[in-house]
Amino acid sequence: MRFGLAVYPEVLLVAEEKKKGRKDAEMKKSLEDKQVAMSGGNESSEFETVSEEQVKAVLAQYDRESNTREFTGIPKYIVRYLLVGFSLYGILANVVFTLPEQIKRASFIGIVIFIAFLLFPASKKIKKRVNRVPWYDLALGIVGFCAFFYLVVNFRTIADRAGLFTQTDLIWGVIGILIVLEICRRAVGLPIVVVVSCFIAFAFYSGFSFKRLVTHLSYTLEGVIGIPLGVCTTFIVMFIMFGAFLEKTGVGQFFIDVSNAIAGFASGGPAKVAVIASAMEGMVSGSSVSNTVGSGSFTIPMMKKIGYKPEFAAAVEAAASTGGQIMPPIMGAAAFLMAEITGIPYSNIVIAAFLPAVLYFTGIFLMIHFEAKKLGLRGMTKEELPNFWKLLFTKGFLLIPLFVIMYLMMSGSTPTMAAFWSIVSAIAVSMVRKDTRLTPKKAVDALENGARNTLGVAIACSAAGIIIGVVTLTGVGLDLATGLLTLSGGITILALFFTMLACIVLGMGVPTTANYVIMATITAPIVVKLGVPLMAAHMFVFYFGIVADITPPVALAAYAGAAIAHSNPLNTAITATRLAIAAFIIPYMFALNPAILLGPQSFSTVASTLQVLFMIITSFVGMVAVSAGMEGYLLKKMRVWERILAIAAGLLLIDPGLATDLIGFSLIALVIVVQYYGSRSKGQPVTAA
Fold first, then answer.
1. 384: Cβ–Cβ under 8 A, 6 or more apart, which residues?
2. Which of 137, 94, 200, 130 lies closest to 463, judged by CA?
3. How much is the pTM?
4. Phi, psi angles (nearest 5°) of residue 564
5. What is the DSSP string of 316-356?
6. 281-298: string of b/e by CB count within 10 Å (b at 16+)?
7. Are the C-beta atoms of residues 477 and 471 closer than 8 Å to each other?
8. pLDDT tens, 437-457?
9. Residue 450: CB partners within 8 Å, gap ≥ 6?
10. Nearest to 564 by CA among 319, 313, 322
């Protein structure tokens, strides 16, 4: 179908083109301003810029949620206000209205499917035509909408039949499942569709009838409209809206400026700036790929400018952006989701996630530092950098909404209401300054962006619901756990390794929130069955689900960074995996020794407190040793045997235990002594790490 532009008056077309030209100029100016900020305000410095068009192209290639059709004129406003209306419905359905869960979830996904077919083409290879939606996509959108609104309209009738389903129920149920799979392929990617299809095939293999399976997945709260979608329709959509409003206040640029003020002066400063900024933005954005592209369009050229290799620059941004998903207190909304699924208080989850996240970013920071020392890279001068205290005084109020959501969650408020009042606080604090003020246009933009960001997550959650439905119907989760334990021969570390591989495969290309739902459903019970505490088990599978974004072969965040840096994608992914080595070590630490998650029992006595403090110290020293070994530099360039000893020492120190700590300290001390006295004996200067 082609939206009607033939009757669009010529004068309006001219006005629209002028308006588009002004908007493009504004976008270009905004991009230039951010690039100047990343270069420390030095406008005259030679700086490789990344255009808005390049950013959009990279997002369209590597982020399925960004690969959408283009609209102008009247069609653009039709789509825009469809999205705004959906956002308002999502907010009102949670804050004002009280609807039965089946009606709320079915109506939510029905609207999502209709809008998604307008936006997402059948293939990335199809040539995009402005203002063109093929008739078959419009038809699929309407049919998908009707499939789920069939349940909305007939909810009472179906409920009164108490499990007696008609042929019409069955037909609409089949249509709904097939539509979900197709739009999931378009908006999220093929891997999750393959996984869902395998689970459906297993249900048939287990002997369940066609009618039983379809009705279970379509009309119960253990299928398409199951727990994942229920969580999405409540606090995930609210959190996404909060992030959209927060972004419009300019907090992203504030993160970049503050990061420059904190770390811009250090050796290899821009790379460290990228880590801090991406960690702060990533915990709010909930998308490794979009965060890599958004921040990387500024940070990657800066890193290349001071001397980092393109592969390394892209890998730093990808690893840091992916790590943002594990950074408390937000964790890309996964912290709220984990609290809901496990029943563990949100405050406990935030505390538990803190030390592992700090160790992760410490590892990246140290590798950047050692790489900078190895290459002799400098930081920026004081004159090039913004003043931290001035920034905090003039724009620090932008952080208030983050403190609001943390306070409300820790004080027992529901995630939904915490997100709502945080949105209100974001609007309120934006009024302090003219340049941060949320005007009506910015508010509408936030609602539109919030809806766009919700579509992919909602679709992934509905697909994840099918997986959960099959698991509850067949008990396959227990079979998977038993099979994996059998495969590992009862060896815990081997079972954890196999679970890690499963998480990486299942997490490929899936948004953070849906990613965690899948992990919590399929793989977390396996880890729990190994005797790992509930919190540690869920953190274990969440970490490995997230690192799929930088792990070859489907390392979407790394490939997106490579596209901006013009580097080899595979080499970038391998480098990102090396930089994020902590993410492959730390989960084993808290699976084998949950004390690192800092539970209440960790500080119950003076002895336990001292034990935790000693564990923190040894873990940090261990990260220094591992990072130095991976980079091949400590006080000077390291020989092969020194690197091997350093890595071994680091792994031993990270693993809590008196014997391992003593051996680890001895090994790293040996390496330091050899490096120090070896340099002095040859008359070489010893650089401070």
1. 39, 40, 41, 42, 264
2. 200
3. 0.79
4. -75, -40
5. HHHHHHHHGGG-TTTGGGHHHHHHHHH---HHHHHHHHHHH
6. bbbbbbbbbbbbbbbbbb
7. yes
8. 999 999 999 999 999 989 988
9. 87, 237, 240, 241, 243, 244, 245
10. 313
